[in-house]
Design a protein that fits this description.
Four copies of one chain form a homotetramer. Chain A is α/β, with parallel strands linked by helices and 359 residues long. Chain A folds into two domains: 2-156 and 341-353, Rossmann fold (3-Layer(aba) Sandwich), CATH 3.40.50; 157-334, 2-Layer Sandwich (Dihydrodipicolinate Reductase, domain 2), CATH 3.30.360.10. Chain A has helices at 21-30, 52-55, 66-69, 94-106, 129-132, 138-141, 157-173, 196-199, 210-221, 264-272, 277-280, 302-305, 308-311, 337-353, and strands spanning 11-16, 36-43, 74-75, 87-90, 110-113, 150-153, 175-184, 224-226, 229-231, 236-243, 250-258, 291-293, 314-321, 327-333. A six-stranded parallel β-sheet of chain A has the order 3-2-1-4-5-6, sandwiched between helices. A six-stranded mixed β-sheet of chain A has the order 10-7-11-14-13-12, with helices on one face. The longest helix of chain A has 17 residues, at 157-173. The A-B interface holds A 177, 179, 181, 183, 200-206, 208, 215, 236-238, 240, 242, 244-247, 251, 253, 255, 297-304, 317-318, 322-325, 328, 330 and B 177, 179, 181, 183, 200-206, 208, 215, 236-238, 240, 242, 244-247, 251, 253, 255, 297-304, 317-318, 322-325, 328, 330.
Chain lengths: 359, 359, 359, 359
């Protein structure tokens, strides 16, 4: 099982939008993956023809593997139908992702994407393996863009962390309402992204479109699949999003009202005992524990905990009663690993093990 | 009126805790004040006897006035009863403020303090001139520590900003509940305060004692004076406090539930039309407008707006409806000016004009 | 004299490149200037027609004056020859400054520019009023671009600070060689300029073109005017330039070899006694003392000293003997005030008083 | 050889000053070391008796191993002579290191220390394995503090990086003079160390004692062992040290004058071909390449390259001719790994392989 699950050959994959911040994380995570092998890197027209090393301003802490550095970038819009791969990871900008991804689905590819364009499509799983693996059944009848390919999306970077914390609460106590205030890292805005003059010694109290995503995506993710349709979760969410001078790691101050108010100890147990099919199958990128709970007042912190469990676990602390809701707590997750590329890779790993990706 | 209100001689004052961050703000604000003149600077035993320039690690942006640089520091605990002043500003640490301030009151001094020790004492005004000037009437019967001095406190740095925003809402629409999440500046922790290794590229999700202050102080401040007793405001408050890498200026994400839900435009008008006795009397340090409202999505920001109206105004923006409460908005105030030394000086200015400080 | 030097009417001026970082400093410094009045703001084609408030992402700490906020931006390339002004301040990008400024000179305007394009032209003064006011005589015979206008440039932001420190050393002891290592603020790269992902928790050891400017511009500035030609100073300079996470204020670690090695005390006296025609004429923006010397080991610092004397003075400290050169010291100057817009305004002030600008 | 060099049992070691920044690095590097096993953690009197987890504010990015978290701290001053270990790593403060380390030597222990106290003692190797492994011969006759123990020191954090860059230049071309300007990380000052109010948006142009160390230690390190005495290298060094807002990684701008000026290509080859006994023996913590050379103008950068080769390699870039010296370049090294704990561990590894540590 898990890492013992072996293939004769690795699954060949392409990365669309490979030069951006999330694209670089894809390269980092897939460059040495036990199941996947990068055979195609694609980016915008202007990068096409350059080597990856030339076109990408590599910002990851680990060195760029030489074999990838020398790969020639293709254009996302003119990928030859050479059929050397059938699985595509996408970190395209929303400005072009909708159309390009639809083209790939039309041409029979399986698209695992971080882009937001098709997230709320009723036929498309908005997937977090630990939370709503059942939604993958939507693929059985997914029939989109006039082709026989498939598409699976992962949620917004802040939504993923939030839903991992909400899932055990929903299962054990039922959710009524959620108030979430974020302090988000600059890597979430891509590169070059946030100007240094805007964030040094400053806080920016607005991130375009972010609050709407956080208030709607969890309703789908935590919704139930009934007769192959997702029925939205009826809870209410209010989100306030801020940008702070942190490189990686989104912090969220969360207040929750539950259907049945548990004791603090029951809350902690719900967090600590949380596990899922991703852990059972020991998917390569699955965190050993999806949630790490800290009792120290000053934790979690981005600098200290963002890399826990390969950047795939969320950290929770400061759990205490709330005068207005039932409980409040602080939540941290790595926005470009768990909240983007890592989340997408984990989605693909689950799809492999459940038979949705074949080769 | 106001700046035209002149004295033959300035009022001599002492500053206790003069070398700390808030003490330095007191020196900056009182060093060239039209009504007050610093005649005594006091600090801890170990600084006594040194010049102010030697003992204080001056961190203000404006240069230290030479006349003050050369003043010899006294010890707060052995101030001679020379009666060269009767008004004392205090920015003492809570560890020693309680006792020392009580001694000054016992000995007949008027103490205007930023320390938290006596804030919740039922006989002590917890004063913000724009919000609860009526509470100064507590002084008429204040009888504390076995002396005939008087003491007035100002609230916690985060509370002051919050109450300035809440006051017009309370007056126009009535407050039911308030949810406040802060992103607070490092200057709030004094000097040396927060270690750079703890805050560079990081967020600290906890500030000792801060949430309790924010959840209780506003109830007294927005309470009513009935038969010379303050009846606490019955609203409920939940606060979550975080430290971020900002030098000055506390940001607060606020959600409010009101007794009568107004339109957004009515909210804006309540903020923009807010004024008070401090503005009517044109107190020297009073902001021309206590609240500046911004309609741009990306405002307010600490770096851009903390110095508005001499650092004495609060800035509000991002007003929008809240799915859980009625409205949510972002609030900024300067924590060591409006939220500490400037707030105390404004308190003293009001006390002068209302006859509570004589000389 | 000086501030007592009055005009019946202020001199009308235009600002080219008014929306950028240096352009905003021009607006801040000229918006309330005793001698100059902004009558025209110009920027790129795409900003033309918008109000200044719409087009500029105002980043200065002081609020944007309303009268300027509502001014309509012109295009730098299609300014009507309406002759409502004859003095032009330029903070244009080097990419377009050369041609546009030449056009203005051709059409008879006086151009005072921060752009680098014409700095090394032998007929153009590269002016710092405290250092080489004599070079203004070049204007008497300046005959450029086929017109009868005039053009005066100010040096690169790092060069200005360096030359202010070198001038008294040159005068008293003679300069042989200078080794300069900079730690430069992010505002020097304009807006959006440096990406936050590149500078948070980082140092960038390269600034395009900066070292070449620092190694050549001082030779012209400290050169002598002989027969209306500037003879370059023969000293040698080596510069190393780095970008650090500071908002404003360039630090330079300087080592100097002098023709006659003075005592440390003589060095200090040379710095402290330094004054010039700009101080004698009490030009409105001239610092009272061009150089502030600090004996404390930890000074100067950008955060503490960049605003000294309206941001127009340089700060020097840590003077000590150098095992390789004669002395080494640390130098600070405000890069967008003294090093750019403020330097240009001071140039124009000197030109007014010396009769090079008439109206 | 190297990692294939196996022991029946690991060597038991103690760490003195185990709770500080460098002490934590020792714990991180030795916690899972193939040759060494931590059997004793010691710190100040006030930490003695607490578990390591209680006493240390763990700031490393990797999680604290449970087995170490639960170890009980001993007092450095009352370590029982239980002889369960004979090798001691020290990261004590200079205030107490001199005496405590002398006591250990007196009692027959082998002390491998990062403290500065005994660095310049003529009988004590100031060791960098890649640079001066021959100096270990001093141990043959080392006779200090009236005991039969031995002591080996590693240089100051900035010195180590500098000497690794200078060594191949010395060997190939001969060194005449070196000018070094540093931009040093905050972790170099320990914890709590630099106050955030002092370094956010700032540069501090002074680090106590640092310049003297950089100007003297390399002369010993690069000196020759003649008749069991170290003859200092006669080159001259000038250092200027600054603190910047970087968490880890010291940058140095270096200018060098050589006895024979090579071509730029010869310089690069000298850097890139540099290797040593540490690489030949494949010591566990030895970097594969001590020097990484970058031709990209914007490299090296602390955030990007500090972790190269486990944080044990230095990075060099921006090599170019210098108008005053022969060449200038930029150098980066990790100050608490290569420059402190990692350097000391590598020293001990070399001592093991050369027979200076037995058990």
């Amino acid at each position: 099982m898990g890492h013992e699950f072996h293939f004769r050959d690795k699954i060949p994959v392409a990365i669309l939008g490979a030069t951006g911040m999330v694209g670089q994380r894809f390269v980092e995570l897939l460059g040495n993956h036990p199941w996947f092998q990068i055979v195609c890197l694609a980016a915008s027209e202007k990068s096409a023809g350059k080597t990856y090393a030339e076109a990408a301003n590599w910002l990851m802490a680990s060195p760029l593997p030489t074999s990838i550095a020398s790969m020639t970038l293709q254009s996302c819009q003119n990928l030859e139908p050479n059929r050397s791969f059938s699985l595509v990871f996408s970190s395209l900008d929303a400005a072009c992702a909708g159309e390009i991804e639809a083209d790939f689905v039309k041409n029979g590819y399986t698209v695992v994407t971080n882009a937001r364009n098709h997230r709320m499509n009723q036929q498309v799983p908005l997937l977090i393996p630990e939370v709503n693996s059942a939604h993958l059944k939507l693929l059985d009848n997914q029939n989109l863009f006039g082709g026989n390919g498939k598409i699976v999306t992962n949620p917004n970077c802040s939504t993923i962390g939030l839903c991992l914390a909400l899932k055990p609460l929903q299962d054990h106590f039922g959710l009524e309402s959620v108030h979430a205030t974020t302090m988000q890292a600059i890597s979430g805005a891509g590169y070059p992204g946030v100007a240094s003059l805007d964030i040094l010694d400053n806080v920016i109290p607005h991130i375009m479109g972010e609050e709407a995503k956080m208030e709607t995506e969890p309703l789908k993710i935590l919704g139930e699949l009934v007769a192959n349709q997702i029925v939205s979760n009826p809870m209410k969410i209010s989100a306030q999003c801020n940008r702070v001078a942190v490189s990686d790691g989104h912090m969220i101050n969360v207040s929750v009202k539950l259907k049945q108010k548990p004791t603090k100890q029951e809350m902690i147990e719900a967090f600590q005992s949380f596990t899922s099919i991703a852990q059972e199958l020991a998917l390569p990128l699955a965190p050993k524990n999806p949630i790490h709970y800290f009792s120290e007042d000053q934790y979690p912190q981005p600098k200290v905990h963002r890399h826990l469990d390969k950047g795939m676990a969320v950290s929770i602390g400061r759990l205490r009663e709330c005068p207005l809701f039932d409980y409040k707590f602080t939540l941290l997750s790595h926005n470009t690993i768990r909240g983007a590329a890592g989340g997408a890779v984990l989605n693909a790993e689950l799809m492999v093990r459940l038979g949705y990706i074949r080769w």
